[in-house]
Design goal:
This protein has 250 residues and is mainly alpha-helical. It contains seven helices and five strands; from the N terminus they run ααααβααββαββ.
């Protein structure tokens, strides 16, 4: 018994030392494990607060492929999608605001001409009234586009596929700008060759041509010329150009 007791007494310091070493190692390991988890979680929390304040361009560095790493990757993907969605909405609002200026300018100009008795012939008044009505219809179409914001964000914008008479569409688009063109003291012309029939969305095409014409009117000096030309290409394709003298986009 004395021998066993003596052996235990000799082992106690060693066991105590081993226990202290194991306890120290466990503390160190626990500390690093805690930091490896709490650090990324703290960064995710900070990034979430930035997104709540309107800063969507946040990114968390990826470290490892464990659960926390996958959580950081999922957060980065979410932040990217939210940021893209916000940019899409801002671009849409900016584009719609830009496009609303054209019909508003035309409505104001044509209605002001009628009010000021610039046009007095019944046929001219009827023509100006028709243009005001058509521009108001175009404004309504633009407002409808705002209601399609959710579809645009999800990539589900519906496009019409109907036969389009490009010559009529181009002449009609140029006609809507005649008041602004005359007011700017410039000339205009539509030069269309014989074109094949095409299928498309006439309202979307009209938006494209209207934007180009609006920029052309803005950057053409007095006495200048704005010309829309269209010609057939091989393979049933059609080339359409809007050119203005003065400052223009190549």
């Amino acid at each position: 018994n004395e021998e066993i007791a003596s052996a235990w007494l000799e082992l106690v310091p060693r066991l105590a030392l081993a226990g202290l070493i194991a306890l120290s190692v466990s503390f160190v390991v626990s500390y690093f494990i805690s930091r490896s988890i709490s650090g990324p979680l703290a960064r995710i929390t900070a990034a979430s607060k930035q997104m709540a304040q309107g800063n969507y361009d946040v990114h968390i560095p990826l470290r490892g492929q464990d659960e926390v790493g996958r959580l950081s990757e999922a957060f980065n993907q979410m932040a990217t999608e939210v940021s893209a969605s916000q940019r899409t909405m801002k671009d849409l609002l900016a584009n719609v605001s830009h496009e609303l200026k054209t019909p508003l300018t035309s409505i104001q100009g044509f209605s002001q001409a009628i009010i000021d008795d610039v046009v007095t012939e019944p046929d001219d008044i009827k023509e100006y009234s028709r243009l005001v009505y058509e521009e108001s219809q175009r404004m309504r179409g633009l407002v409808d586009d705002l209601l399609l914001l959710s579809q645009i964000e999800s990539g589900q914008v519906s496009m019409e596929h109907k036969r389009v008479d490009l010559e009529v569409l181009l002449e009609h688009t140029m006609e809507r700008f005649q008041f602004a063109i005359r007011d700017a003291g410039i000339q205009s012309g539509v030069y269309v060759e014989r074109l094949p029939g095409i299928v498309g969305d006439s309202r979307r095409l009209e938006q494209v041509f209207s934007n180009l014409l609006q920029n052309a009117v803005r950057h053409t000096p007095p006495g200048g010329l704005i010309a829309i030309s269209a010609k057939a290409l091989a393979g049933g394709h059609v080339s359409i150009s809007v050119h203005n003298t003065g400052s223009y986009i190549p």
